[in-house]
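F.,

This is the one I mentioned.
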């Protein structure tokens, strides 16, 4: 059983992601600096998409975000060159907040009963929803670090 600390860490990471989303212009969010293959926007959206795959899909549940969003930002995808609109930014902001709360609520309700083990590309095997949630925290923190590096080049 996970403690509230695990979800508090997830919430803190999401709040850090929101800071970048809300304090950059749409153009800045879309910049792919030389030497990088993605941008701040993609990294934030990827955190939402990949969390859905790691937790919901691996538990044989329907993700709570649109499938086309997941397809656009899942592992192995890259920015499409589009600059997000203000409506896109607001929608991603809402997804960051809603999916964090829903993951915690769904875990507490016990909906992740049928979790299927999965070996991540990190080389870490997820054997339970608890493993997936803990790994997702590490994954999102890694992308937050990437965003901080990207931020250096888009000031």
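My design for it:
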């Amino acid at each position: 059983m996970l403690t509230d600390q695990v979800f508090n860490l997830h919430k803190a990471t999401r709040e850090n992601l929101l800071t970048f989303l809300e304090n950059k212009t749409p153009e800045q969010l879309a910049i792919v600096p030389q030497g990088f293959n993605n941008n701040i926007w993609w990294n934030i959206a990827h955190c939402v998409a990949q969390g859905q795959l790691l937790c919901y899909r691996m538990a044989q549940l329907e993700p709570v975000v649109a499938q086309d969003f997941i397809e656009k930002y899942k592992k192995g995808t890259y920015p499409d060159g589009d600059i997000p609109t203000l409506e896109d930014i607001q929608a991603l902001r809402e997804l960051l907040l809603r999916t964090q709360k829903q993951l915690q609520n769904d875990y507490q309700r016990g909906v992740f009963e049928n979790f299927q083990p999965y070996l991540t590309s990190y080389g870490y095997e997820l054997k339970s929803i608890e493993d997936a949630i803990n790994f997702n925290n590490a994954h999102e923190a890694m992308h937050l670090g990437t965003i901080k590096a990207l931020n250096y080049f888009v000031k």
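The chain has a mean pLDDT of 97.

Talk soon.
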